[in-house]
Design brief:
It is an enzyme of class 2 (transferase). The chain has 16 helices and 2 strands. With about 425 residues, it is an all-alpha fold. Mean pLDDT is about 75; it is low at about 335-365, about 385-395 and about 405-430.
């Protein structure tokens, strides 16, 4: 902030000097304005002053609604800023025919408004994870989101009005879609905050909060994906391939696909939870710690997973909306039918005597035939090189041993029998 104040002071001083020189040398308003607009130095100074004014206004808005930023918010701001700057540069190359001073001003305003939206989302996430939040913080964040929504609607109406007046494709398409996406993001963040406040007023006993939050994110991703696809088609038909939209379109499609897969998996698991997960008996509750690890409350009734851990029914349902592993041991929560099928498919698992069925016997016979076919194929491939160690011939081992014995006998040095006899004859004399 101190650096911005110093830079703003020098910028204002330089701009004031250029304006004073223009009016003192021309002595009339119109010639002075012509000089300020035609002189390159004065024009750059005026643009710099306008940018500084926008940055100062951004800092004032941030200070008014958010106060001091936290480290996570600063990191999010820095990461997203570089991405957006690169994408904006690509967008400038697409709309180079509409390049002007007003276009640069609108682009700078768009970047600053996007930065405020990132901070609002991060602050709402912080409030949701903080146990005690003062009332002033709630008032400020609600006012901040209302302010952002008004700004989005104003810029959106301005872009749509310009697009309707020109009746042709222009840079107004770019700003219309951008502010439309920002407005939907603001509404989604506000609704998520309303869910949090409702759950807080119910003292954390709102069981449907996670379900509604999941549906909200699913609908939000669907709306964003539709807008990005329409935006991509509009830009592609009028200007060419919009490179700055490829990343956003891919990430939105990937998030939507992941959420659809999670939703299908969640519905599949929770469709018959009473049949998949049995109720825990009183002995099991007394034998183990009767505290639900998800909500940290005592359990009078609970559901038992395949791994043996116990949880509340509503806690388990809300957990399955986000994760599909046990909260305690991280074992996969597999339905009972799939678990038995998986154990039956394990190699080496044999049925007990007298309990084999024709289907299981046929499956085991098929597995054995496949294994035998693989071994025969490996033996045939090795025999092509004459070095088959998979199925050696019947006399291969005897030939190999005879060759080794013959080779070892060749390496043994010959024994001098005369020297041996002399040694044996001298031995009694020495004794």
């Amino acid at each position: 902030m101190a650096r911005l104040q110093t830079y703003a002071a020098f910028s204002l001083l330089a701009t004031a000097s250029s304006v004073y020189y223009a009016f003192s040398s021309r002595e009339q308003f119109y010639p002075a304005m012509v000089y300020l607009s035609t002189s390159k130095i004065c024009f750059v100074l005026l643009l710099n002053t306008g940018l500084v004014a926008m940055c100062v206004a951004w800092q004032l808005v941030k200070r008014l609604f958010l106060g001091s930023l936290r480290e996570a918010e600063v990191e999010r701001l820095n990461e997203q800023s570089w991405r957006e700057v690169v994408e904006i540069l690509f967008a400038v190359t697409i709309f180079r025919q509409d390049f002007s001073v007003s276009f640069l001003a609108m682009v700078a305003a768009l970047l600053l408004v996007k930065a405020l939206h990132w901070l609002a989302q991060k602050r709402v996430e912080y409030i949701e994870t903080t146990p005690s939040v003062p009332m002033l913080s709630h008032i400020r964040i609600v006012s901040f989101m209302a302010f952002l929504l008004i700004i989005d609607c104003l810029f959106l109406s301005n872009s749509l009005r310009s697009l309707i007046q020109k009746r042709e494709a222009s840079v107004a398409i770019f700003f219309s879609f951008e502010y439309m996406i920002l407005a939907t993001s603001t509404v989604s963040t506000f609704v998520k905050y309303v869910f949090y406040v409702s759950d807080m007023l119910m003292e954390g006993q709102w069981e449907k909060k996670a379900v509604y939050t999941f549906y909200l994110e699913l609908v939000s991703d669907l709306v964003h994906l539709s807008l990005y696809m329409l935006f991509f088609i509009a830009i592609f038909l009028n200007y060419g391939v919009p490179l700055h939209l490829i990343r956003e379109l891919y990430e939105t499609f990937r998030n939507f696909k992941i959420r659809i897969a999670d939703y299908v998996r969640y519905r599949k698991i929770t469709s018959n939870m009473n049949e998949r997960f049995p109720d825990a008996s009183a002995e099991e509750l007394n034998a183990s710690d009767a505290t639900c690890i998800i909500c940290r409350e005592e359990m009078t009734t609970a559901k038992k997973l395949l791994c043996g851990h116990l949880f509340h029914v509503h806690c388990l349902r809300s957990w399955l909306e986000r994760q599909h592993t046990c909260p305690t041991c991280r074992a996969p929560i597999i339905p009972a039918d799939n678990g038995r099928a998986a154990s039956a498919r394990q190699p080496g698992a044999q049925p007990a005597a007298g309990t084999g069925t024709p289907a299981s016997e046929g499956a085991s016979g098929e597995n054995m035939s496949r294994r035998q076919a693989k071994l025969e194929a490996a033996a045939a491939a090795a025999s092509l090189y004459g070095r088959s160690f998979v199925y050696p011939p019947a006399n291969a081992l005897s030939q190999f041993l005879s060759l080794q014995v013959h080779h070892s006998l060749k390496q043994v040095p010959p024994i001098n029998l005369r020297k041996t006899k002399n040694c044996s004859s001298k031995t009694p004399a020495m004794v």
